[in-house]
Amino acid sequence: MAKSMILGADGQPIDMASVNTPQTSQLGHLQRELQSHPTRGLTPSKLAAILDAAEQGDLTAQFDLFEDMEEKDGHIASEMGKRRRALILDWEITAPDNASTLEKRNTEQLGELVQSIPDFEDVIFDATDAIGKGFACLETEWHRVEGFWLPKTLTHRPQSWFQLHRGYRQELRLRSNTADADGIQGEALRPFGWVTHIHKAKSGYLERTALFRQLVWTYLFKNYSVGDLAEFLEIYGIPVRLGKYPPNASEREKATLLRALVGIGHNAAGIIPEGMLIDFKDAATGDPKAFELMISWCERNQSKVILGGTLTSGADGAASTNALGNVHNEVRKDLRDGDIRQLNATITRDLVYAIAAMNGLAPDGIKRCPRFGLITGETEDIQVLSEALPKLVGIGVQVPQDWANQKLGIPMPQPGQVVLGVTPVVQAAPTGTAALTAVLPAPAAQPLTVAQTMQPQLASNVQQATSPWFAQIRKLVESAGSLEQIRDGLEQLIPNMTLDQFALAMGEAMAAAQLAGRYEVLQEAGAL
């Protein structure tokens, strides 16, 4: 495909001349921009103003607030780290459905190209920054390696570098302090120049879908409670020290006594002039549980918002049990699976397709492009599945082999690949009584209560028992009064028999008579 005809994910032609240069290299003011810290002196009214400004299109303060929250609140940072690192998994590139030979070959080559991207796990981690902040943009710098176009770097850019344009669809644009021909502020993101992952914690406009929007108030309340607790400990946790000086003490002596009080409070040692007195009062009583309760409530709420539960974080202390923790962990798996689906779509659209299109590996566009997928690595219990599959197959359930291998976590063998197997043991053909045991079914009687289950066996044997030759044997057995009479009768029916043939005939005669008789009994009892 000609370079001029390379199509983006939206089906529009790509200007390859713009791919060589990162877009932000021409926006120096963003590189020099210093981040503000809106959490300093944060109050309810200031927080409400930041949120209102974001809804009006000014996102800078809101994203600076999100950065401060994740940096200063250890609990939020810990819980977000759990959720984001849950996506650092093995991955694969899969061919489209009903792939042709060419598409399979392109998929294999594309997987090798993606594998060569340096620090690809960091790319996935940076993209998951969108989980808390609504979106994450990674700028792609391209270069050619052995004739192939490959990303040289994928650099995470702060969310405060971007602005939103509300039109028919919301559009993320760089804050370039310029407007395009249509009067729209900002600079549109170049195709193939960005990996833009948009993660929705809830439905609505992008500026309100960020997960951290649901955490800002608990962050504020917790900060107030921590500050109040620190003040409480400062006032009530340290005993009051009173210094007494004589009535005729000079100002210098008073200052000396004050310095001694301060020194004793911090250093547990000090000196005072003779005649002066320092008195230690008992610390005032107080209860810090109210502050601890508020802090605990805020952290439990944060855990629920981020992980869908509280017990996976240990926020409940002694109340956290292993059983309940497993239940809450299932909720985390639901969240993780949702995160994986969203991230797979983004990586496929903005990275895998870009590499495929620029290297001629997606001739039919994004619809037939190979797909990126994170592998959770979860498999079924091998023991349980190994017991269930034979039973299911036995009753006629058609189980595809590749599905069974996938559930067991066992890859399908490649042509020529050595596989494990059970080697059949070749034994010599049995003779004599051993031959009789191997050929004939066990004559153990079956109870009448399971007659239906033995009907196929009876039907197949009765046919032999009622054949002309076996009918004569049966008549002989029924009329004989001893084994000797059966022996003599068999010699007349089948002359010139060997000893083994004679033993086999005796066994067949006994088995035929027994099965035929049992079949008649079951028919009369109405069990068949």
Q: What topology emerges from the helices and strands here?
A:
Layout: H1 28-31, H2 44-55, H3 60-72, H4 74-85, E1 90-94, H5 101-115, H6 120-127, H7 130-133, E2 135-145, E3 148-157, E4 162-166, E5 170-179, E6 185-188, E7 194-198, H8 216-236, E8 241-244, H9 251-267, E9 277-280, H10 289-307, H11 322-358, E10 371-375, H12 382-394, H13 401-408, H14 432-439, H15 451-465, H16 468-479, H17 483-493, H18 499-525
Antiparallel strand pairs: 1-10, 2-3, 2-7, 4-5, 5-6, 8-9
Placed side by side, the strands forming the largest sheet appear as 3-2-7
Following the backbone from N to C, one meets helices and strands in this order, namely HHHHEHHHEEEEEEHEHEHHEHHHHHHH
Count the DSSP helices: 18
Query: Judging from the principal axes of the Cα atoms, what is the shape?
Result: flat
Q: Percent of residues in helical segments?
A: 40-55%
**What fraction strand?**
5-15%
Number of strands: 10
Oligomeric state of the chains? single chain
**What structural class do the secondary elements suggest?**
mainly alpha
Low-confidence stretches: 432-440, 445-452
Average residue-wise pLDDT: 78
**What's the story with the biggest beta sheet?**
3 strands, antiparallel
Radius of gyration in whole Å, from Cα? 41 Å
Distance between the termini: 73 Å
